[in-house]
């Protein structure tokens, strides 16, 4: 059960299988790509983490799905020196929920149970700060709300963004 559930493969660019650093010119942006996939049908989230020369903190930018399990992000090179990059992926629980809810709603299916599932996902978010409080308050407002109103709130881009920002990142894997 503790085995990795997400694979990150074929990260490019690379020189001689990764034995040597890739070289570029200051000011360029390097396209980093990787094949990233997981078992099952759940959605995954993929980011590119970057660290500038001499830096101690990683910054992060989302990678975009190109199709067929290939992902891409651009890495800026603002200063001279050795930049570090790594691909990070995890199971996107709320993204999977949104995908399933959207499909069922669009097919005209009853989504009452899915609304309750979404409400519980919001209520279970233990993030601190404004995002966590906002999500838990929304979960309370959805109790007994009309299904159409609840679906709109669960699929609202602000809700999706807040859930992504507070994601506990289950099964996180790094390249």
Which structural class best describes the helix and strand composition? alpha+beta
- Percent in strands: 25-35%
Mean pLDDT: 92
Question: Counting H and I runs of at least 4 residues, what is the number of helices?
Answer: 5
Shape: elongated
Q: Give the termini distance in whole angstroms.
A: 20 Å
* Count of distinct strands: 8
Write the layout of secondary structure elements.
Elements: E1 6-12, E2 29-38, E3 44-51, E4 59-62, E5 64-67, E6 70-76, E7 84-91, H1 93-106, H2 112-123, H3 129-141, H4 147-155, H5 157-165, E8 173-174
Antiparallel strand pairs: 1-2, 2-6, 3-4, 3-7, 5-6, 7-8
Explained architecture:
This protein has helices at 93-106, 112-123, 129-141, 147-155, 157-165, and strands at residues 6-12, 29-38, 44-51, 59-62, 64-67, 70-76, 84-91, 173-174. Strand 5 and strand 6 (70-76) form a beta hairpin. The model has no long low-confidence stretch (mean pLDDT 92). With 175 residues, it is an alpha+beta fold.
